[in-house]
Input
Amino acid sequence: MADRSFSDVSLAALYDQLNPWGPGDDFYLDLVMSARSVLDVGCGTGRLLARAREAGHGGRLCGLDPAAAMLVQARRRAPAEWVLGDLGSARWEGEFDLVVMTGHAFQVLLGDEQVRAALAGVRRALADGGRFAFETRNPAVRPWESWTPDRARAVRDADGDAVRVSHRVEAPVLGDRVTFSETFEHPGWERPRVSRSTLRFLGADALRRFLGSAGFTVQEQYGDWARGPLSATSPEIITVAVTA
Output
């Protein structure tokens, strides 16, 4: 799940283990390979663009992320433009055919003005006819109910030591925002490292309204990475919008 824990260098090195390549990455890779110029907003460790470069993408690939620790990982992976910052600080004008926001990064936009500002930045960066692809979790299935300490995971760091990761949601959950803590425990650390994050869960209709106001038309909307139809029980709301 998207959060700000990975601004820590030692935790950034664990990101790909905690979030292994999966069907969602394949979905976005197909889009990237079909575009000449791509901006990956919240690119993290740069895995998607690095895979595209390895697959023979010869065009412009640009990754944008506010966490310097994540970009340290990205710069080691592949030749691309790796930019520290966010859509508020970036000033691209019609330079990209495709913008993507993966890893549920869209959900860290908590207020209406934040959403509008981010969409304005995406629209500004896209050329006419460009596409914007992103995903959010479907609020109808209440995925946060499974974010409990008893579902902790463990991964190995570079030295082979186990790092235990667990989550706890702050109750009660009100409206469309969910606040939770993420705890990392390592046998060599004096104390656990804990971060607190909030995500916003917007439904499909709300997403369409925001996109329409920003100058986008929803081209495709899926409920899973196999491009299944969106329904009340779909785990994801996967949206591909085109500049109107």
User: Anything to note?
Assistant: The chain has a mean pLDDT of 93. The longest helix spans residues 112-125. The radius of gyration is 18 Å.
